[in-house]
């Protein structure tokens, strides 16, 4: 017997009710990001594997364990994109966007891929909205982006969300701090989890993320990066905080905030839903002032975030449907041409109109009109009647013009 075909593990089919909710979020994002000067931008779904190895960081979980990597027919190594920022920076360099007026503000939406263990809110293919501001290190961009993500979460109905905020400083401060932290970890090596011990040299910051009780105890006494920032970074962070304060945005400064990507400098942040379980992060991001240079471009600062659509949908309630619909019922077999004409006309006026297209009896057609939530049903037979689906009143009209007018009245 042949195997039953199913969607691959960790992927999901978007069914119509969710499809509508996704579209709504996309519209909210387009509108609120557009108002702040962010332009739509798209990059390919797959890239050279090297882009992510260099951009995301060779020691990250994403690069070490989670990439969907394959060879094309010419033997080139390609990878399905696990995140958006590296590719946007690649495109910025490739198209000489440093010659444009700065900052260049871009946003994108689409599928991303990580080979993770699937669970509630964690998929192998998921959808992100991503916003980036490239070419300026002004702290107002950090604050602006944070406020935009807060508004997106709020307007999508996924609030309340907790905002955690920190600064990672510049690579030099971080290097000195990491040496200090490694020293602390080495002093307590026996108490650490195996995973943290193995990655102690490559990525000691990840120890803050550990679930392991012994490691957590060691980390409680560890030095904090926020206390080691150099004056310029500390001032940048204070400016970001002051702008958020002025905007009335609540946040928690959390010096243990570590993000799973290596490229961050200075500001990092994450929004967590108070309604979700283990996978509570709705979105997050930060500043990456060295990434573009790392990818072969001129020194160019940047800041951005990514939000997970599936998580936002999980944290928000489904909205009742609001658009009014019209159903056109056929009371005689040759009414289709008229029905078709009327449907074209109503759809042209922006009214959602469905025609009977499955050969139902009249009783079945009225039932179908009810099922789709029609506000009015136009019945085309020897004459034309318009039924008010709320009151049940059925009124004869002279012609298609009068039918359209009556429908307009009912839909208000
Ligand atoms: P990250 O790039 O890891 O900061 O991810 C940004 C956002 O994308 C997260 O806050 C999640 O909302 C979402 N996200 C990341 N990985 C996954 C995944 N495997 N499944 C679903 N959503 C994800």
The portion of residues assigned to helices is 25-40%
The class by helix and strand makeup works out as alpha+beta
Strand order of the biggest β-sheet: 1-5-6-11-10-9-7-8
Shape: elongated
The count of strands amounts to 16
pLDDT below 50 for ≥5 consecutive residues: which ranges?
none
Bound molecules: adenosine monophosphate
**For the CA atoms, what is the radius of gyration?**
27 Å
Q: Given the structure, what is the number of helices?
A: 14
Task: Report on the biggest sheet.
Answer: 8 strands, mixed
- Compressed to H and E, one letter per element, the order equals HEEHHEEHEEHEHHHHEEEHEHEHEHEEEH
| Strand content range | 15-25%
Q: Give the overall pLDDT as a whole number.
A: 94
Distance between the termini: 56 Å
Give your account of this protein's structure.
By secondary structure, the chain is of the alpha+beta class. It contains 14 helices and 16 strands. It has helices spanning 16-35, 49-55, 61-66, 85-94, 139-155, 171-187, 194-198, 213-220, 231-246, 291-294, 309-315, 336-348, 362-371, 400-411; strands at 39-40, 46-48, 69-71, 77-80, 104-113, 125-134, 161-167, 252-253, 265-273, 281-287, 302-308, 325-330, 352-355, 374-380, 384-388, 394-397. The strands form 3 sheets. An 8-stranded mixed sheet has the order 1-5-6-11-10-9-7-8. Strands 13-12-14-15-16 form a 5-stranded mixed sheet, sandwiched between helices. A 3-stranded antiparallel sheet has the order 2-4-3. Helix 1 runs antiparallel to helix 5 and helix 5 (139-155) packs parallel to helix 9. The longest helix has 20 residues, at 16-35. It is elongated, with a radius of gyration of 27 Å. The termini are far apart. The relative contact order is 0.12. The model has no long low-confidence stretch (mean pLDDT 94). Residues 83, 114, 116, 121-123, 126, 128, 259-260, 281-284, 306-308, 310-311 line the site of adenosine monophosphate.
